[in-house]
Amino acid sequence: MTQTHPHSDPDRIDPGTADGSDIKAVFFDIDGTLTSFKTHIVPQSTLEALEQLSDHGIATFICSGRPPAQLDAARRLMPHEWTGYVTMNGQCCYDDHGYQESEALNPTDIAAFVEFLSTRRPDVAAGFCELDYVYFNQINDYLRAMWDGLGKTAPDIIVDDPARTLTHTTYQVSAYVPAGREEDEIMEVMPHCRALRWHPDFTDICPADGGKPAGIKRFMRKYGWTRSQVMTFGDGGNDVEMLDYAGLGVAMGNATDDAKAAADYVTDDVDHDGIMNALRHFNVL
C-alpha cells in the first residue's frame, strides 16, 4: 500500500514528480522502520537498500530516540557503515570519525523531575541518558512491556540512583507513563523541555528546541545540504517533525496516523520491503 501526499512548500520536493536525483542523504528511524516489531530483525531488502545507497554515494544516517549507549544491539543487526548518527531525538549527533555536537537538558528541569519522582510519583520508572551511560531509577510493568516489544534490539537495563544527575550531564530522560494527565504533570515541572512520544508506554523528554529535525540540521550544516537533498523514513510520533521537515518524508505502512499525515509518501510496511520500495519509487535507487 502506498500513498502520496502532495504539498506546496517550495523548500521541499513535490512527491508527485520527484525523481530522487537530488537526494544526498537519507535518515532512518530504527524501531518499526529499519527493524520489524514482528520479527525484531532488519529485512534483507532493507540491508540491500542501505548498501546500494552507499554504492551510489548517498549518505546514510540512523535518526533515533535511542542514546548512543543503546545503539549497539540495533547496529549488530545492521552490518552497515553509517555516515553518522542522530541520537536522543536530535540531542547528540556524531560519526565514527570524531565529529560530535550535542545539547544537554536544563539542569533545573532535571532536578525538578528527580524531585517529582521522589516525592510525587515514586511508582514511575524513568530512564536517564548520558552520552555513554543509560540507567533507570527502577523497573516497573510499563518498562517491562516496552522492552519485551523491542525483542533482539532491546539493550540491557541498568538501575542506578537518579541523584547521579547532580554530577553528570543528562541529555534526555524517558518517563514510562501513558499519555495524558501523568505526562502533563511531568511537563509542568520541566518548562524548558518538551515531550516526544512514539510508544504508548513512554515518552522521551528533550530540550524545548530539540527533536529529530534539530539533529538533521546539524548534519546539513556540516555537509552543506539543503532540505530538498534530504530524505527521511519513520513510523512513530517522534518522527512526525522530521517527516514534515525533510525534502522528502516517507512514512512506513505500519506508521502511526500522525506520522502518515506528516509524510509526503506512505510506503509499504517494514515487513513488506517498504524502504526498498520507496527508494525505487522515487528512483533514488
Automatic annotation (TrEMBL):
Leader peptide range in chain numbering: none
GO molecular function, one term: magnesium ion binding
Any one Gene Ontology cellular component term annotated for this protein: cytosol
Matching Gene3D superfamilies: 3.30.1240.10, HAD superfamily/HAD-like
InterPro entries listed in its UniProt record: Cof (IPR000150), HAD-like_sf (IPR036412), HAD_sf (IPR023214)
SUPFAM superfamilies per the UniProt record, alphabetical: HAD-like (SSF56784)
Source domain of life: Bacteria
Keywords: Hydrolase
One Pfam family of this chain: Hydrolase_3
Name by which UniProt lists this protein: Hydrolase
Biological source species: Pseudoscardovia suis
